[in-house]
Every structure is written in structure tokens, then in C-alpha cells.
């Protein structure tokens, strides 16, 4: 592997991790059930105290919903990568439906616009899930 290109990375400071999470809007949530894994891109909101994920519901039994019910410890990854540099953050911990409430104005402030695929807007509902960070690891390219 002597001709494979590579870059060095190092751990991010707690402050840099916090700044990136506060500025970010989306990532990928990893869930599991038995011996099967499921990953889904989601929008998130992090304010230093809460790490909330916006999950759409558009039928009685979505695959996301099934995996959310069975996953005790989830991993959320947000990242950016290019040939010039990269960073990634893994947030790992218990995930549960959030028991708080929020109005539509706040939802729009906290999250980027929802991307509809084949759903009719009147058939889409949202739930918020809270991921309680037990471990948060960040890495970034070293110049």
C-alpha cells in the first residue's frame, strides 16, 4: 500500500466538536435490531444541552420506526470531506422519543426544511427523538 494517498487526522478538541455540532444540520443515524443494521440521513438540532433528531412518520410501520423501537444505543455521524480536508463526529448513546413539545415556528428554526420524496405533505408527521450523548468523538484532517 505504499502508493496509496493518505492524510493524517487527529482528535478534535471538545470546543471544536461543540462548535461543529452547533453549526451542523444533518448527518446519518445508525440503528440496529438483532443482526441487522439500518442507517438513515436525518436533520438534527444541538444546543449544548439537547441532541434532537427530527424523524418523519408517513405510514403505520416505517422501517425507521421499527429500528428506533429496538435500538437501545444509537450512533449518529455528521461529517464533511473533500480532498482538501475532512472532519467527522460520532455521537453515541441511548435514543428515546423526546417528551418535550415544540411549535411549528420553533421546528422551522431548529431544523432545515424537510425534504419530501414520494409523500404527500398532509400525510407526513414528525417526531423528535433525543440522543443522549454518552460518547462524542471528533476527528479532523491535520494540515
Keywords:
143 residues; alpha+beta; Pnp Oxidase, Chain A; six-stranded antiparallel β-barrel; 17% helix; globular
Sequence-ordered SSE layout with sheet pairings:
Layout: E1 9-11, H1 14-23, E2 26-33, E3 36-46, E4 51-57, H2 63-70, E5 73-81, E6 86-97, H3 104-110, E7 125-131, E8 135-141
Antiparallel strand pairs: 1-8, 2-3, 2-5, 3-4, 4-7, 5-6, 6-7, 6-8
Range of helix content? 10-25%
Widest sheet, order of strands: 2-3-4-7-6-5
The termini sit apart by: 22 Å
Which series of helices and strands comes N to C? EHEEEHEEHEE
Low-pLDDT stretches are none
| Form type | globular
**Overall radius of gyration:** 17 Å
**On the 0-100 scale, what is the average pLDDT?**
91
| Structural class by SSE content | alpha+beta
CATH topology assignment of the domain at 27-78 and 91-137: Pnp Oxidase, Chain A
What is the count of helical runs?
3
Amino acid at each position: 500500500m505504499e502508493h496509496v494517498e493518505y492524510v493524517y487526522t487527529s482528535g478534535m478538541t471538545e470546543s471544536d466538536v461543540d462548535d461543529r455540532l452547533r453549526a451542523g444540520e444533518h448527518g446519518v443515524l445508525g440503528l440496529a435490531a438483532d443482526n441487522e443494521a439500518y442507517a438513515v440521513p436525518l436533520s438534527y438540532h444541538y444546543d449544548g444541552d439537547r441532541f434532537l433528531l427530527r424523524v418523519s412518520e408517513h405510514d403505520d410501520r416505517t422501517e425507521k420506526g421499527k429500528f428506533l423501537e429496538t435500538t437501545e444505543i444509537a450512533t449518529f455521524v455528521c461529517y464533511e470531506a473533500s480532498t482538501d480536508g475532512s472532519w467527522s463526529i460520532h455521537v453515541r448513546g441511548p435514543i428515546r422519543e423526546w417528551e418535550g413539545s415544540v411549535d411549528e415556528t420553533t421546528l422551522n428554526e431548529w431544523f432545515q426544511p424537510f425534504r419530501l420524496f414520494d409523500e404527500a405533505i398532509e400525510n407526513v408527521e414528525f417526531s423528535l427523538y433525543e440522543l443522549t450523548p454518552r460518547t462524542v468523538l471528533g476527528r479532523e484532517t491535520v494540515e
